[in-house]
Design goal:
Strand order of the largest sheet: 2-1-3-4-5
Distance between the termini: 38 Å
Largest sheet: 5 strands, parallel
CATH class of the largest domain: Alpha Beta
Helix content: 40-55%
Radius of gyration: 19 Å
CATH architecture of the largest domain: 3-Layer(aba) Sandwich
Strand content: 15-25%
Shape: elongated
CATH topology of the largest domain: Rossmann fold
Length: 230
């Protein structure tokens, strides 16, 4: 049974969401304050965190940042009345996987919950179970700590860079289309484009390629996508 942490201080909404998630065979743990949420997060493992932003004691943005700083990749779905583009961009940029503005339709909420859990489960099942990967001329990647040994020394990559790196490595010698990369690593709400992926690939080449203009490991197929070769 998949376990969800629901962090919401509005009691009526909490009860409605808990009831419907339970009917969908999810186990739900409730937290009404930011402090309570952090205690649960530090002491338990969840398959998804549904997180309000305006919370007593510690707000949702701060909780999200704490989770990502601790290198946890648990999916995070923000639900909030703060619906401006600035709020959504901030939520996604600090590591949330999706953002749903209140008031929302219950069916849409349940669909997003299922999609996030399914996407995360697929990534967990298809990617290499090893925490570390070594390739090329002594390059190494630690998927758990986000630390990499590159031609420029030891660095800490962002969550998105590590996710892209792990996706490409897991499909070694296979072409991964831009569309598949977008679907695997970005939510429908985040509105990235092909240029976004290109920029991440450029960064990876700077870290690992002896000559980024003539890549050996991160190969592009014009109009199709990218593949990792070792």
């Amino acid at each position: 049974m998949k376990e969800i942490l629901l962090v919401e201080d509005e009691e009526s909404l909490t009860e409605v969401l808990t009831l419907n998630l339970t009917l969908e065979d999810f186990k739900v743990t409730q937290a009404k304050t930011g402090t309570e949420a952090l205690r649960y997060i530090h002491n338990n493992k969840f398959d998804l965190i549904v997180l309000d932003i305006m919370l007593p004691e510690v707000n949702g943005f701060d909780i999200c940042e704490i989770i990502r700083k601790e290198k946890s990749d648990v999916p995070i779905l923000f639900i909030s009345a703060k619906g401006t583009s600035t709020d959504r961009i901030k939520g996604l940029s600090i590591g949330a996987d999706d953002y749903l503005v209140k008031p929302f339709h219950l069916d849409e909420f349940l669909l997003r919950v299922k999609n996030l859990i399914n996407r995360f489960s697929k990534k967990s099942n298809t990617l290499d179970d090893k925490d570390k990967f070594v390739f090329g001329n002594g390059y190494s990647v630690d998927f758990k700590t986000y630390e990499v040994d590159t031609k420029n020394g030891k660095l800490t990559l962002s969550k998105r860079e590590i996710e892209l790196l792990k996706l490409l490595i897991s499909k070694k010698n296979e072409v991964v289309s831009r569309e598949n990369i977008l679907n695997a690593l970005w939510s429908e709400n985040s509105s990235p484009n092909s240029r976004t992926i290109d920029n991440y690939i450029l960064n990876l080449r700077k870290h690992f390629e002896d000559n980024p203009k003539i890549p050996k490991y991160f190969i592009s197929l014009r109009g199709v996508g990218y593949k990792f070769v070792d």
